[in-house]
Write a structure and sequence with these properties.
This protein has helices at 2-13, 22-30, 71-75, 132-150, 162-172, 201-209, 219-239, 246-261, 274-284, 314-325; strands at residues 52-59, 83-91, 98-103, 108-111, 114-115, 121-122, 125-129, 156-160, 175-179, 183-185, 190-192, 195-199, 265-267, 292-296, 299-301, 310-312, 330-331, 344-348, 384-385, 392-394, 397-400. It is globular and about 50 Å long. The protein has one domain (2-351, 383-400): LCP protein (Aminopeptidase, 3-Layer(aba) Sandwich), CATH 3.40.630.190. The longest helix is centred in the middle third of the chain and has 21 residues, at 219-239. It has 405 residues and is an alpha+beta fold.
Length: 405
Amino acid sequence: MLGVVVLVAVVSAVGVGAFAVWDTARAAADHAVDLEGDEPLPPTIGEIEGGVNVLLVGTDSCEGANAALSGACQAGDTEGERNDVTMLLHISDNPRRVTVVSFPRDMLVPIPACPRADGGEYSAMSSQMLNASYMYGGLACTVKTVEALTGEDIQFAGAIRWTGVINMSDAIGGVDVCVTGDVHDPHTGLTLTAGTHTLQGVQALQFLRMRHGVADGSDLGRISNQQQFMSSLVRKLQGESVLSNASTLFSLATTAMKQVTEGQLLLSRSLTNPTLMVQIAMAVKDVDYADIVFVQYPTRYIPGNGRSDVVPVRDAGDVLFAALRENKPLVLTGSTSAAAGAPEVAGEATKPTPEASVTPTPGTTDAPADPTDAATPPPADAAVELPSSITGTTAAQVTCSQPQR
């Protein structure tokens, strides 16, 4: 997930200069995955038209260097490669808004029939954990599974392995996260003292995977960790001039592409087009923090099954996706997490506003225009209050994870 988000953000932010990585983008296309309905894009630079859906997946591969990062891999307790992290990035049409929907890996959902690598087809299944979709049919199957659940058409997708996350977080220079007390997760090996920490490399991966050290120790608590990390990443990219430093951007872009050629980052063929990357970034670069929303798809635990398998609450999920299709502002009414021990809101962040330069018209003064001369702005769209079962935060909210109790 981290590699895909950064890949799109940083390569695109270079604008026309993104074509400096054209050769590596062509290499990425050689390793790409085809999705149903893939269509070529016109070779023009500008904001992408309409809404966009990008599925971001983090997998638990035991291949190569990834095996040393997991006790389960070393013990031989894993079967295949699964999508442990599944997020849908939705970019709305004008006005632009960004919503990231996280789907619990243990959520029981139908998995549709998916194509096999040998040309055959996996049979549809009525109820399986979401993270089994990648094991059965790879990235294309996970896309089809989430499309069936949400009713959305997903045009673009990417999957990243653990080693890719480590390399991308190193290239970024770390992301700030905070915890309200000392935490320790014996499964990932991460230990943090109370306060704020800048995490990169292995520690960043451990924080994204950690669940036993925070909240109620469930996968739902881990999702809130991931949302905190992603929200902080957005603020860093936009607020610390990362996206205005051409040298840093080129380094990040080439690092991301290297993950592709080394097999740590997999993209849909539609996402390997540098023009598309530019179009997506130009569409989201000015979105306010308050309009960048991170939510968890609503679920409920199966009675008597502990904090493990969950099932989707479809009526609440339908409210969310109806609002996204209608491009309505979202109002969060639930807590910051569906897990007990939700993250605490530690403050609000405001997106930096660049100073505007004013070039006076010949024969006029430098005085600002009379505000009454401006056109009356259109009325704001009616906001949709999401059901309280849909939890989450915005990029404007600075949250801190709570230790497991």
